[in-house]
Amino acid sequence: MEDFTELIPGLPEEIALQCLTRMYYGVHEVASHVCQRWRRLLLCKDFYYHRKQSGFTHKTACFVQSLPAAASNPKPENQPKYGLTVFEPSSGIWDQVDPVPKYPDGLPLFCQVESSEGKLVMMGGWNPGSWEPLRDVFVYDFTTRRWTQRTDMPSNRSFFAAGAYDGKIYVAGGHDESKNALKSAWVYDISADEWTELAPMSEERDECEGVFVGSEFMVISGYDTDSQGRFKNTAEVLDITTGRWRRVEEAWGGSRCPRACVTVGQNGNLTCWAESDPAIQVGACGVDLGDRTLVTGSAYQGAPQTFFVAEKLKQGQNRKLIKVGAPDEFSGFVQSGCFVEI
């Protein structure tokens, strides 16, 4: 691959950098093959933050979504296969992330996805063939359009809370391979590819949900090993600076599973997206994009998936849901999702 002395021959460095900063992320993979210097720049973390500070990153929602049946086999399968869908509300573009090479026929069932610094992180889940719990960690780079396998999770863990902050992924709760609920917690440093154990929560929390509120990691609801399905109305909050947890009483309506459907109101209270509209009361999933939220769900079990954009309004006003059309190939059931700023 040829290398250039100048970033763009004939242009001052500052102007050349601005040109590359404005380049749409969808062509980064092709551009990375132009020369060695472009490739180093496009893969550099500092360039990502330069694009972000300049306002040229793109806010997208990434969903773990059931794939349509193949045309050669239109009959419904016993277990649907899942892929990763990316939707950019500002442009209306829908796209499919390339399959993980280790799992070409579908993602691990109930895997968790988070993102950091424009990269997508997939963790855990169950082997789609054997239903064996997995510890796999894969990172997808949108510049190279490639998955890289990273250091495994320290132990088998399913249905856990997860959240991303400042280049790290925090996980807590869930259950182990014997269906025992967990209160342990770990943090994964993406750059260092290292897991570090955190202080445990005060109690077990299976099928809990994780959200970041500012720089605090909140683990919402869940249940103990001996009380499966009876969701707690409490939450625990990790101060990532001190590493200490604190308990929050009456944080969640205890009768409903919090996974993927938690929204944080302007006054800091936690509510459920399923309660915002009858069209998404089953399987509700919300992805906070900053100035808006992409919300999806169904009116009833087996009903078509409906997508809305919820605009954030002024204090005291209700969020307005605006329906979004999705192509047929992106209309499958959404299991979970995360925000990716590419």
Automatic annotation (TrEMBL):
Q: Which domain of life is it from?
A: Eukaryota
Checking SMART domains in the record gives:
Kelch
Q: Which GO terms describe its biological process?
A: negative regulation of cytokinin-activated signaling pathway; regulation of phenylpropanoid metabolic process
Q: Write the signal peptide boundaries.
A: none
Name by which UniProt lists this protein:
Galactose oxidase, beta-propeller
Please report the organism this UniProt entry assigns to the protein: Cynara cardunculus var. scolymus
